[in-house]
């Protein structure tokens, strides 16, 4: 997994609350190989049913080209557990998501793919989106070690992240290897469970 | 005396393998359900050259990509999809995971099959690479959906790293009116608390109306916990739960049964246990519900009218209402009962169990559908049971199509999609934009209400058809 340390990049604003993972990648693309999914990002938001690009959708605006950050509304990426919602964004270069709240499963899935979800309060998220709309192509910078997000207005906010998640991201560490280090504890648990819940 | 604990707390504590100082817990997972979308997890495991730690704890069935008009894998048109359904065979055969395959009457939607087979039991932790895993909480398990990296993690270690969620109680007290189902209850709950209402929480559904629900009704309620933003939803195990589990293929047997029941009796929340949040609803106030928008919280009573964006509390809400109404092709102020429907889908892990089909058949009996309407049973066993009761005949005589088990039009991954602008009355759980196909307009409702729409050609109050 690619480590995440700092990011200074163009950010796109997404204003819809409850933007679900079906909007990030529609279900009909899920069974395809990962490289065939890349172009499916925000598919039905970007294109009309007859495949015409919608000029008003952010990722269709050249000014936001090269974006690596998304600033979204509340309950971003709720809905289906599809991890493709993270991977399709990562494969399109988007690695940090800033929103007042997230769908739980999406939030967890980010850390498995070297992506960083950041919770900020709703007012600041709205302010950031306003700034990004006002000057398309404006940058946001993120420093994971310092736990800060700096907006285009130069204002810096500190964000919270669990030290466990932070360390894994900073090192690009893999959770499975970490867990295997606890093999003795898992074995002890299993032995105890065999005694206590013998019907399983 | 030990402090009073919630059911969630008890199950959590019982499954802690390691508690780290940084707030992370390595949690042991008792059951892992797999489906045709779990191929990604197996692939990740293979990349690392690892084997499944506990194949005996895994159960698999293909559901998302299977056809609803054929049981032959070779008939799956899309080669990528066909490969996923084939992969579940090879992956389970190689690893030793129990498979309920296509053609086996036990095959069906994972969340229908787990409880039906007795794989889902009180007091257990259960995961699946699917968000509606919350369904299984209806039997008093802590069950939640995970992504494919976590699926691979569970395959490799039988554990997951978790931060402890908060506990929330939603109590529904009183008596539900005639014709009011678990689906109406959960839609009313989501309309009240919103789709982000339970983010970060495990919900315990409590109160006399919940206790009065059958297991099928509880499964429907817990199923949509994720639509309320919850990590999981659960109902305390009671006599109804124990009676349901008795004699199921994977339920404990003989002396083990008694041991298990004794344990299950200890699972419910202690008297006086406190929750981080408490919400309550009056059962008598719940009416048949239908969604009008593109989020499950956009639900209203069948007696209501399409809402006016001008009544929204703020501009953001107003804009999102306008967007939803525009997508849905609806005019504010229209009585719901006057909204025409083009198509009906009865199925999905929310509402495809035998009780759902009985409720639907009761309304369908002696009537005729006026729009294309499908019934897709949740599993082969549900289908068989319905046929034994003659429900299939009622449906077919009424003009419904009686199809083969799977997710089908809930998500349309198998090709069962609607056409752009088609308005579908659906018993599934998500009315998201494009969920049932690009441009399709989905309205969520109960099976009986879906039949009312099918025979009327517009939304209709099932209570008037009784
Ligand atoms: S029936 Fe629908 S919601 Fe349930 S598992 Fe299948 S696709 Fe998901």
3D structure, described in words:
The complex is a heterodimer of chains A (200) and B (466). By secondary structure, chain A is an alpha/beta fold. Chain A has nine helices and seven strands; from the N terminus they run βαααβαβαβαβββααα. Chain B has 466 residues and is an alpha/beta fold. At the A-B interface, helix 5, helix 8 and helix 9 of A face strand 2, helix 3, helix 5, strand 8 and helix 10 of B. Iron/sulfur cluster (SF4) binds next to loops of chain B. The site of iron/sulfur cluster (SF4) has 13 residues of chain B, from loops.
Please summarize the sheet with the most strands of chain B. 5 strands, parallel
For this entry, what is the oligomeric state of its chains? Answer: heterodimer
**How many helices of chain A in DSSP terms?**
9
Helix content of chain B: 25-40%
Broad structural category of chain B: alpha/beta
Radius of gyration of chain B: 21 Å
Q: What fraction, in percent, of the residue positions of chain A are helical?
A: 25-40%
Low-confidence stretches of chain B: none
**Termini distance of chain B?**
53 Å
**Low-pLDDT runs of chain A:** none
Give the helix tally of chain B.
Answer: 16
Write down how many β-strands of chain A occur, each being a DSSP E stretch of 2 or more residues. Answer: 7
Q: Largest chain-chain contact? A: A-B, 52 and 69 residues
């Amino acid at each position: 997994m690619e480590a995440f340390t700092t990011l200074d990049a163009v950010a796109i604003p997404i204003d819809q609350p409850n933007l679900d993972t079906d909007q990030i990648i529609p279900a009909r693309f899920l069974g395809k190989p990962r490289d065939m999914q890349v172009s499916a990002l925000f598919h039905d938001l970007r294109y009309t049913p007859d495949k015409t690009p919608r000029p008003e959708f952010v990722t269709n605006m050249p000014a936001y080209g090269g974006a690596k950050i998304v600033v979204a509304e509340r309950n971003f990426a709720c809905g289906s557990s599809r991890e493709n919602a993270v991977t399709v964004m990562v494969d399109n270069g988007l690695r940090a998501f800033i929103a007042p709240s997230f769908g739980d499963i999406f939030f967890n899935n980010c850390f498995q793919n070297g992506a960083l979800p950041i919770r900020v309060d709703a007012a600041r998220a709205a302010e950031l989106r306003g700034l990004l709309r006002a000057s398309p192509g404006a940058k946001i910078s993120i420093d994971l070690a310092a736990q800060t997000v700096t907006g285009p207005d130069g204002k810096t906010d500190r964000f919270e992240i669990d030290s466990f998640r932070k360390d894994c991201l900073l090192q690009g560490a893999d959770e499975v290897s970490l867990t295997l280090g606890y093999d003795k504890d898992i074995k002890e648990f299993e032995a105890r469970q065999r005694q206590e819940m013998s019907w399983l | 005396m030990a402090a009073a604990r919630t059911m969630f707390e008890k199950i959590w504590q019982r499954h802690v393998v390691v508690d780290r100082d940084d707030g992370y817990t390595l949690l042991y997972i008792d059951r892992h359900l797999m489906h045709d979308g779990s191929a990604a997890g197996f692939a990740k495991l293979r990349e690392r050259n690892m084997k499944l730690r506990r194949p005996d704890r895994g159960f698999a069935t293909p559901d998302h990509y299977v056809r609803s008009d054929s049981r032959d894998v070779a008939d799956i048109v899309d080669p990528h999809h066909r490969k996923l359904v084939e992969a579940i065979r090879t992956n389970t055969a190689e690893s030793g995971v129990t498979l309920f395959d296509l053609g086996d009457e036990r095959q069906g939607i994972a969340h229908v099959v787990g409880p039906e087979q007795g794989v889902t039991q009180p007091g257990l932790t259960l995961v699946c690479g699917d968000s509606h895993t919350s369904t299984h909480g209806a039997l008093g398990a802590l069950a939640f959906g995970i992504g494919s990296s976590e699926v691979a993690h569970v395959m490799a270690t039988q554990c997951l790293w978790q931060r402890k969620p908060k506990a929330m109680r939603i109590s529904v007290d009183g008596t539900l009116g005639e014709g009011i189902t678990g689906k109406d209850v959960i839609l009313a709950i989501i309309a009240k608390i919103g789709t982000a209402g339970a983010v970060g929480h495990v919900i315990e559904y409590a109160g006399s109306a919940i206790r009065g629900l059958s297991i099928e009704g509880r499964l429907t309620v817990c199923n949509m916990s994720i639509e309320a933003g919850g990590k999981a939803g659960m109902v305390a195990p009671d006599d109804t739960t124990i009676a349901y589990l008795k004699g199921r293929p994977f339920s404990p047997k003989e002396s083990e049964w008694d041991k298990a029941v004794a344990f299950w009796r200890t699972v419910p929340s202690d008297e006086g246990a406190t929750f981080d949040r408490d919400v309550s609803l009056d059962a008598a106030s719940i009416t048949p519900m239908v969604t009008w928008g593109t989020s499950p919280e956009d639900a209203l009573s069948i007696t209501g009218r399409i809402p006016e964006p001008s009544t929204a509390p703020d501009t953001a809400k107003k804009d999102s209402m306008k967007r939803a109404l525009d997508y849905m092709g609806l005019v504010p102020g229209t009585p719901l009962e006057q909204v025409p429907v083009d198509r009906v889908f009865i199925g999905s892990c929310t509402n495809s169990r035998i009780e759902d089909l009985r409720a639907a058949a009761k309304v369908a009996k002696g009537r005729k559908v006026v729009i294309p309407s499908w019934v897709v049973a949740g599993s082969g066993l549900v289908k068989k049971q319905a046929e034994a009761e003659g429900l299939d005949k009622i449906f077919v005589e009424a003009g419904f199509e009686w199809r083969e088990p799977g997710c089908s039009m809930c998500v349309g991954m198998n090709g069962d999609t609607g056409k752009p602008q088609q308005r579908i009355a659906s018993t599934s759980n998500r009315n998201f934009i494009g969920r049932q196909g690009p441009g399709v307009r989905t309205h969520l409702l109960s099976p009986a209400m879906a039949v009312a729409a099918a025979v009327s050609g517009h939304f209709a109050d099932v209570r008037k058809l009784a």
